[in-house]
Amino acid sequence: MSREVHAVRGTPLTSEWINRMQEAWSLAAWGVTLVKLDANTVAVQPVDDGEEERAGLWIAGHARWISSDVTLTVSGAAGTRSVYAVAQDLPATGFTLSMASGAGRRKIAEVDWDGSAITAIRNLVDAVSGHGHLHRPGGPDPLPAAWGAGKAIIPDEESRTNTAYGTLPTPDVVENVVLPTDGLLFIAAAALWKESAGDVARAALFIGANQLKVSRMDAADPKKQAASMTRGGTTTNVGYRHLTTCPIGLTSQYIAADLDAADVSTGVALGLMSTDTIGPDTVNDTDDAQMAMSPHLAGGVCVVRAPAGTYDVSVQYKATSGTVTAKSRKLWVWTQGFPA
After folding, report:
1. Helix boundaries (H) for 254-337
2. Are 326 and 193 contacting, i.e. CB atoms less than 8 angstroms apart?
3. How far is CA 304 from CA 13, 148, 184, 205, 338, in A?
4. Does residue 310 register a pLDDT over 80?
5. Does a structural domain hold residue 95?
6. Is 4 part of any domain?
7. Residue partners of 92: CB distance under 8 A and separation at least 6
8. If we measure between CA atoms, which residue out of 322, 250, 314, 323 comes closest to residue 281?
9. What is the average pLDDT value for the chain, to the nearest integer?
């Protein structure tokens, strides 16, 4: 659409006006997400709808959209910066980004800036996936199907020997995941992993730089959570085992015999089932105490609550001695917003 078309009361709608409305309705996303490109640059990026890349936004009652990235450099003293979408004048139909308010502008995000780097982004506009979600000018933004989503699929075998948590050489990470205010973060992961000696390997979920925590029945404060390859605190072998997410983080099978676990490409549940009264263990990473899962079925999606912001979500590994190795790694991350 190269210009606005104004209908006159009492006259038939022209085919040109209808064609332009169809073009607007076909946008893959109404609403935008501000993401971090580097230490001092943010951007709004178009969405691929299978035909072309576009993203649209209502600004001061007028529809504007982009087909390529629009960026903004953050600078100055430390503080919170407001980011505005600035409607371009017709015949242009796009928008730019600015930190200055004014007429013909819409505030879309806030950026926390420490004077040298961006530390957090809070998006204020829904990013709506799917066709037909047309925002009514001046009305509330529609409910998003997903604010942020991504995956990391890594088949290769890689190892780590560090005693501190970190990613493998090819990181299991989904970057720039946008979590809206009062939204939920969903994480699903699976891998095969092994250790060079008994009970030395750990794997944990990280939300940004923070290791996932879980509340315990017997502790006042939430504790850092991780998976280990132990059975009641001991390990009998060093073969590959299944690692998977569960409702409280990550957990792993132990396998009583000295056998390598096998991966399945089709039709396997994201989870584990125990055949005895001990069950797979997870680790309280603060004091290394074992927490057996009960009932003895573990696995599925981990649902996390956190402040609104933009996060990198990762699976990280460490070995208290020796080496931890993983392969067939899969990580899926998405978020869900809710109406006010």
Report:
1. none
2. yes
3. 49, 14, 6, 11, 15
4. yes
5. yes
6. no
7. none
8. 250
9. 77
pTM of the model: 0.59
- Looking at per-residue pLDDT, the higher value among 33 and 16 belongs to 33
- Same-domain pairing of 211 and 321: yes
**Rounded mean pLDDT of 195-209?**
90
Statement: residue 1 has pLDDT above 50? no
User: Do 125 and 53 fall within a single domain?
Assistant: yes
* Two structure tokens written together for 15: 């085919």
**Rounded CA separation 137/95 (Å):** 16
- Nearest by Cα to 17 from 36, 29, 4: 4
**Segment 269-293, tens digit of pLDDT:** 887 766 554 444 455 454 443 444 4
Q: What is the model's pLDDT at position 154?
A: 93
Sequence-separated (6 or more) residues with CB below 8 Å from residue 131: 25, 26, 27, 28, 49
Whether residue 240 contacts residue 260, with contact meaning beta carbons closer than 8 Å, is answered with yes
155 with 87, same domain: the answer is no
